[in-house]
Design a protein that fits this description.
heterodimer; A: Aspartate Aminotransferase, domain 2; 2 domains; B: alpha/beta; three-stranded antiparallel sheet; 16 helices
Chain lengths: ~450, ~500
């Protein structure tokens, strides 16, 4: 099926008006040698057949509706208020494009202005752009910005507790720029501040830390900021927006850029995307950050009106001299995040963060009460994710629980081969006490006949 | 009264949510997190009820033009109708509620869909392999150029330069710079094609890639594309295809057959995934075989576990899809997880609906519609390139500008008649450019109304250009002061950013 309203008779009439003999006369410029291309695709489908085909593919997956999941690691299962799907699927938002014509796009523009404001208030920063692709590319973008704004500084420090995929993105996208990327080691699950102090210097463009970090641990961001500040390097804080309902925001510990993955704010997991990256800065860097930015102005009658602003930074004006190649943002996802923050509001964001803390600690207590299980870093505070050491390889634990329809977490050997028995477990507000009991019970049964090493008795 | 901001709707104590009551063992916040790591004051987010939220965002939506409500001929953006079945399929729980780190045994349908999409994109473009990881066109460009860099580096020299025509999208030169290349801009010839002699002169053995959009942003086909490809390849350079305009060529000619080595596609254009007010899109990148080893990891692979090599295959045997991270030559990773999967599901659905013949009809319709608009307007607006156009037509309002109202004013006036404006002032090579892309999903009747309005506007300018400079008159706001927005910067409500 197709979605073309004109009939062949309409097209023939139009060709006559154009003065073309036939359609081929319009494409005579394409060399004949190229016109031979034949390719095969599966046959076209009517809508009922299409629905059946796609539903059968969907049915070959087991969604989190069918599984009890404790997987986080950069993508989080949170409550998504029904109003988000309802409002974000309105065609006026869904099928519009970048608001180039401000007068015909005040809806999208006001949404983005409000999004920027909400993200600033959540992070405590001064300026937010109108969103980026995702958390990982936001980290990459921050490095481009720091390097572009400080041409003599050619070194980046990044904590090895930053999400492994974010670090990989950083290395990949900077491959052409000849930059030194130094990874900082960790102590007790958080960045080693002595190593940070020793390595940060006047050729360091930025120091990138994540809190809560990949292991769920809350980093000593205040002290890190104090160590970075004298060097003049940018302090880049990658943060989980849900955690900011309870944790000290980057604006209060001196971050120059604060950014992160916005997926937890009402965006479906969708096998990894589309998500949304947020990027904020302090006032002094307002002209340095990249991406679309919406500003408040007035119209010809003096009334409040919104438009894209600071476009002189952007690629469509500056071409190779632009601060970034970025063109689109992720407006629809920013809309979802805005609605999420509006629904939860001031009290709800705090309540939500506290509930995440309570549930994850409840689960940690339940798991560590089992024989052979222990918190990897018992002295380090964590948010809604934590690392436990299992009595057997974590992969074994996970495959045993999968048979019961439980996804116990992410075995860390996936990223760190030496961490064979370490399991990263995430517990958010969508989990109830009964879910945690079910997890603990399954973990106990999966490991009870195992011969335990002395240290875990 | 002007529309309120969500913050102006806020009333202390109002709430629009209910969270589960915590019923586990009691614990104080400071028992979990030391005081110095905690936030002292809550973020000042709005306090509104659910009905306030619904009314607020519903009202804001009504201030927009969109494809669902208006003809939206924004050139180079392919604002075609977005079939609703695509969205419905993408929101099935079996796709939308999958965690990216779920075991592959629980995501076989998803992986199969993505593998099928890669194969279909290969067939459509004539490339050998695709990555679905990039999140947008510009992101695909950077990915493609990093592949180019890896390819040349492996051969001993990453090379220094990337050639980009002056008509290219701004993202091309910007992406090239981010990939560490110096940009060499070459001019266009009078007929709108790449200036072939200038191209030849710019080409040397330090050129890593030549980036082209074909049809170009002038809406015309590069007739010397095969010569360009031959010369580039003779110098060891790779040819990069910006897929922004692929809607013109489906089933008519393939970038792979033209000699392109790397392509990026824009599913939000060609394959009609919704533009979402400016994203999310996606930016799959396809390559010829020589570049495939460098594609980002993971790659989707299909294992055929037939047991012992000569054992008969059981009838119920299902191939198993897996994610392969072991790619030693890979450039690495461009995005977390596997890309904008929800968008890719929509693109897959769209391609399955059309089949090869349906896609050919898409491009035929897009080309006839654009030429129809061109034929009906070229007497009143300057038509810089007289040959037939492809899927979009670039006109110039320089005649009107001399009469006192230019492309911007025409764009604003169109809004009064219920039409979104074309792209204006792009490409930069055409003064007062009006870049009109009707797409195949518009009827002749809609085009006739648009044409009549464009003709009326040309008359209005002759009569009263000053009126045009004040347009629009019927929108929710009058013309917005963009200069003030940048000068008195306010991008965060209640905070001065200037």
């Amino acid at each position: 099926m197709d979605y073309i309203p004109n009939t062949d008779a309409d097209f023939d009439a139009m060709l006559r008006e154009i003065g073309a003999r036939d359609f081929d006369a319009l494409i005579a410029e394409i060399p004949p040698a190229l016109r031979q291309s034949q390719f095969e695709l599966p046959p076209a489908l009517s809508e009922p057949e299409l629905q059946r085909e796609l539903k059968s593919l969907a049915a070959r997956n087991r969604s989190l509706d069918q599984l009890l999941s404790f997987i986080g690691a950069g993508a989080y299962e949170h409550f998504v208020p029904s109003v988000i799907d309802h409002l974000a699927s309105r065609g006026e938002f869904y099928t519009a494009y970048t608001p180039y014509q401000a007068e015909a796009s005040q809806g999208t523009l006001q949404v983005l202005y409000e999004y920027q404001t909400m993200i600033c208030r959540l992070t405590g920063m001064d300026v937010s752009n109108a969103s980026l692709y995702d958390g990982g590319s936001a980290v990459g973008e921050s490095a481009f910005l720091a390097l572009g704004a400080q041409p003599r500084r050619r070194k980046l420090l990044v904590s090895s507790a930053v999400h492994p995929e974010y670090r990989q993105i950083l290395r990949t996208c900077l491959a052409g720029l000849g930059v030194q990327i130094v990874e900082l080691p960790t102590v007790d699950g958080v960045t080693d501040l002595d190593a940070l102090a020793a390595k940060v210097d006047d050729v360091t463009a930025a120091v990138i830390l994540q809190s809560p970090n990949f292991f769920g641990c809350i980093e000593p961001m205040q002290r890190a900021g104090e160590l970075i500040e004298p060097s003049g390097a940018w302090f880049v804080a990658c943060v989980n927006p849900i955690s900011l309902g309870a944790l000290k925001p980057p604006g209060e510990y001196g971050a120059d850029l604060a950014l992160g993955e916005g997926q937890p704010l009402g965006i479906p997991l969708s096998f990894g995307g589309p998500y949304v990256g947020f990027l904020t800065s302090s006032q002094r860097l307002v002209h340095k950050i990249s991406g679309r930015i919406v500003g408040r102005s007035v119209d010809a009658d003096g009334g409040r009106a919104f438009c894209l602003t600071l476009q002189a930074r952007e690629q469509h004006i500056r071409r190779e001299k632009a601060t970034s190649n970025i063109c689109t943002n992720q407006s629809l996802m920013a809309l979802r995040a805005s609605i999420f923050m509006a629904v939860l509001g001031k009290a709800g964001m705090r309540e939500l963060a506290e509930l995440n803390l309570l549930r994850s600690h409840q689960a940690a207590d339940a798991i560590t009460a089992l024989p052979g299980f222990a918190l990897k870093w018992p002295r380090t505070p964590f948010f809604n994710e934590f690392v436990v050491t299992c009595p057997v390889p974590a992969r074994t634990v996970c495959s045993r629980l999968e048979r019961e329809g439980i996804l116990a977490g992410v075995p860390l050997s996936r990223f760190f081969p030496q961490m064979e028995r370490e399991l990263l477990v995430c517990v958010t507000e969508v989990k109830l006490s009964s879910d945690i009991e079910r997890l603990a019970d399954a973990l106990r049964r999966a490991t009870e006949h195992h011969e335990l090493p002395i240290s875990h008795r | 009264m002007k529309d309120l901001l969500i913050f102006e709707r806020s009333v202390p104590g109002h709430r629009g949510y209910a969270l589960p009551v915590y019923d586990g063992p009691k614990k104080k916040l400071v028992e979990m997190v030391p005081q110095e790591l905690l936030r002292e004051r809550g973020a000042d987010l709005p306090e509104v009820s659910e009905v306030d939220v619904v009314r607020h965002y519903t009202r804001l939506s009504q201030l927009n033009f969109s494809v669902d409500t208006h003809f939206y001929p924004l050139g180079s953006c392919t604002m075609k109708y977005n079939p609703k079945v695509n969205d419905q399929m993408a929101s099935l729980a079996g796709f939308a509620n999958l965690h990216p780190y779920q075991p592959a045994s629980t995501t076989q349908g998803m992986l199969q869909l993505l593998a099928e999409l890669e194969q279909m994109l290969c067939a459509i473009t004539g490339m050998d392999a695709f990555t679905l990881q990039p999140a947008a066109g510009a992101h695909g460009e950077l990915t493609g150029l990093l592949l180019v860099r890896a390819y040349h580096t492996q051969r001993g020299n990453p090379r220094k330069k990337v050639i980009v025509p002056d008509s290219a999208h701004g993202t091309n030169p910007s992406s090239a710079r981010m990939a560490g290349y110096e940009v060499v801009t070459i001019p266009s010839a009078a007929n709108g094609e790449v200036d072939f002699e200038a191209f030849r002169a710019a080409l040397d053995d330090q050129v890593a890639a030549v980036m082209l959009t074909n049809p170009s942003t002038h809406g015309i086909f590069e007739t010397r594309i095969l010569d360009i490809a031959r010369l580039a390849h003779e110098k060891g350079a790779l040819l990069y295809y910006d897929g922004a305009n692929l809607n013109a060529l489906l089933g008519l000619a393939r970038p792979g057959d033209m000699g392109f080595d790397v392509v990026h596609l824009n599913p939000h254009k060609t394959f009609s995934t919704p533009h979402g007010g400016g994203g999310p899109g996606a930016g799959p990148v396809g390559v010829k075989g020589a570049l495939a080893p460098y594609l980002p990891a993971p790659r989707i692979v299909k294992h055929v576990n037939a047991g012992a090599a000569n054992a008969p295959r059981p009838a119920h045997h299902e191939p198993a899809f897996a994610l392969d991270y072991d790619r030693p030559l890979s450039i690495g990773r461009m995005r977390t997880f596997y890309g904008n999967v929800g968008i890719l599901v929509r693109a897959h659905t769209y391609i399955r609906a059309h089949g090869a013949e349906g896609l050919r009809r898409v491009s035929r319709g897009a080309i006839i519609n654009a030429n129809y608009v061109k034929a009906k307007l070229r007497d009143l607006y300057d038509d810089p390139f007289p040959q037939p156009c492809m899927h979009e037509v670039v006109l110039s309002a320089r005649r009107q500008k001399k009469q006192g109202a230019g492309a911007r004013d025409i764009a604003k006036r169109l809004l009064d008649f219920g039409f979104h404006a074309p792209t204006v002032y792009f490409p930069l090579t055409v003064p007062e450019a009006l870049m009109i892309e009707p797409t195949e999903t518009e009827s002749q009747r809609t085009l006739d109304r648009f044409i009549a309005v464009m003709r009326q506007i040309a008359e209005e300018i002759e009569r009263d250009a000053a009126m045009l400079r004040r347009a629009p008159f019927t929108m929710p706001v009058k013309r917005v002061d963009e200069v003030k927005a940048a000068r008195d910067l306010d991008v965060n409500y209640g905070k001065r950013n200037a």
